[in-house]
Amino acid sequence: MATRGGVAERRGPARWHAGAVRRSRQTALVLLLAAALTALAACTAPAPAETPAPSSGPAPTASVDAVPPGLGRFYAQRLSWGPCASFAGPDDRTSFAEKRYDCARLEVPLDYANPEGRTAQLGVLRLKATGDKIGSLVINPGGPGASGMSAVPSLFGTGEGADGPLVKRFDVIGLDPRGVGASTPTIDCLTDGEWEVERADLDVDPSPAGVAQTEEENRQYAQRCTDRVGADVLANVGTRDAARDLDVLRATLGDAKLTYLGFSYGTRLGSTYAEDFPQNVRALVLDGAVDPGQSTIDRSVAQAAGFQQTFDAFAAECVKQGNCPLGRDASKATAAFQALTRPLIDRPLAVGSRTLTYPDAITGVTQALYVSSAWPALAQGISALATGDGTILLLLADLYLDRHADGSYGNAIEAFDVISCVDEERITDPAAIADGAARELAAAPYRDSGRGVVAARDKCAFWPVPPTSTPHVPHVTGLPPTVVVSTTGDPATPYEAGIDLAKALGGTLLRVEGEQHGAVLAGSSCVDDAVSAYLVDLTVPASGTACRLAP
Q: I need a surface site. Which of 111, 275, 290, 530 has the fewest CB within 10 A?
């Protein structure tokens, strides 16, 4: 997470979401070159998730005294655990079929102000503790819009995560936030065909006519979301409500206090929970921090600068390796990249029956900047573009935009838009829009089309419901020690944001040297040992602790 839009919301100021920190994403990036050389297997549509029958299992053990008024039946519900196959999307079928996972549905009020009204059903996946269990560890992988259910097999399916101390001591829990993934009602604003039209539209015309066209498209998007999802759902999918859902989940899992690991946007969700329920916190690890007090525009600009910094680091490494498609001088790499990508504005590149557009090329490059292990694939993709082959960059863009091998789209990007529109400041002043867009392009020239600033109002300017929260510094009393993990070369959530979040929560900062988004369970024993010691034994890292990610 970090800001709304970006590639996912390019109809207006160039806002970029930070995405989810998932090992599946990193694995997909590393294996992308091999995937580009093989035919993509067709997938069938997922079966609809089943609503489980009431369980006869043990009732939750959380204190009844902590239940907010009117919510007793939700806090007292019993989760009915069963096979996960019916919860799986196209990319999750293999992992969800493993017997080590079981799944359930959590019922919560759609509107907490009206608990007797319509309800939402949230998908929950569990990996049971293999040893002496402390309680549950709830995971949020970011976005907003990323699936917590998918994150658990990605993070804990192989390597240290599979049999490490966290799995030994905790039931690891992945929750699909309201509207996301397997949860219902589902956020689904665009058909698969409309997604393809969206990707083909450039929105690089800064003229009054071009701005008017972009704004009309954004207005139509907001109307489609309203018509297909419902204004009542749009009004109640923000972080304010997701934090309340976390507390219901905590109680139904039988935990008196929450143990939580949040990545990227998940740090905003975690800090919101800490603000609303400090008495119910056992331990919080917040990795890839969102600065809670930074304005929407300032955070967009800071994130743009972070991606440019990472692009520059990639270019410097590329030049050192030789045969770099961006030339021999890293200081000229951005200009070389612009020369390769800007022609796509007028002449999209055929890739089989599809095309690589200019926005998709930028999206694909940005996707690969999340982790340094993807840089060889990125170099190969840019080299291929120079020879007229857009296959790799298109696959990278597909990965970012949640397009499956069968041509269908998940709802991660739509959920990102919808949640962000009720989480962020609503920016409608033309001068503020133009200034913010200009600052972002200046901060990240690698994604500058050269056509000028498109000062159009974004989708959220046309949203039918008001924001339910806005960026602010949390004011928390009675919170136990927390740990914030921040990486110096994080492109999506800059390092300084971690400093600010740790200060706001009175927590400890774990500094990580490296070039990627997120550091926990990413291969650093230094990071993972410190985080595990805190989550298991509540041993807070010593002040000034620093780690380094493997190159």
A: 111
